[in-house]
Amino acid sequence: MITSRTAKECGTADFGWLQARYTFSFGHYFDPKLMGYASLRVLNQEVLAPGASFQPRTYPRVDVLNLVLQGSAEYRDSEGNSVRVEAGEAALLSTQANVSYSELNTRANQPLTRMQLWLDACPEHENPLTQKMTLPDAKHFLLASPDGENGSLQLRQNVWIHHLDLKPGEQISLPIRGPRAYLQSIHGQVDALGAVSHESQKLACGDGAFIHQENSLTVSASTPLRALLIDMPV
User: Fold this and answer.
1) Quick count: other Cβ atoms within 10 Å of Cβ 33?
2) Cα angle vertex 107, ends 103, 112, to 5°?
3) Quercetin 2,3-dioxygenase C-terminal cupin domain spans which residues (predicted)?
4) 165-212 pLDDT, tens per residue?
5) What span, in angstroms and rounded, lies between the C-alpha atoms of 233 and 163?
6) Judging by beta carbons within 10 Å of its beta carbon (0-12, 13-18, 19+), is residue 219 exposed, middle or buried?
């Protein structure tokens, strides 16, 4: 089964220094039916004004994945760790109890645009506090996984995050390991076809789709497409 969640249906915010779109309940946006999906707690696309920052705050026990689409960000914690992330790079923060984290747009004359995901972290797993990778120029690659396979970022949860970058007319079929997955179009239009239900959904820029009980998904791009497939077996 494939159920779309269009960008227009998502929560939004415009505070001047911050513009945001929220897939799930976050901040002032609250929908009791959309508190997350399996271990995926947060999926936001946010734009920070030049020089803007999020002040230090604590997190629940989650892995915070930041995918920078435009500009440059710096992430700091109260333990003195920091990582700078440019467009075309991603960073993973393994949040800890009693540690606060901040985010800064390091550019004084350019907005920062990024995707941010929160994933529940297993209590028995510990990883490096910060990880960073440069995104390869590839049609498909593994962005994050439980074991850091193929150079991917290592999560504290059984989740596999695939990054897709397709040209118009290209398609790819990916296996899905468990009962749930989520497909997010970062930009571009896509047709998503489930192998079990044979259901198809068309997604536009910013749209997403809940994938349920499909053992594989075929993604076809009708325009230049950049997307994430978040595979969540539990």
Assistant:
1) 6
2) 60
3) 142-232
4) 999 999 999 999 989 999 999 999 999 999 998 989 999 999 999 999
5) 18
6) buried
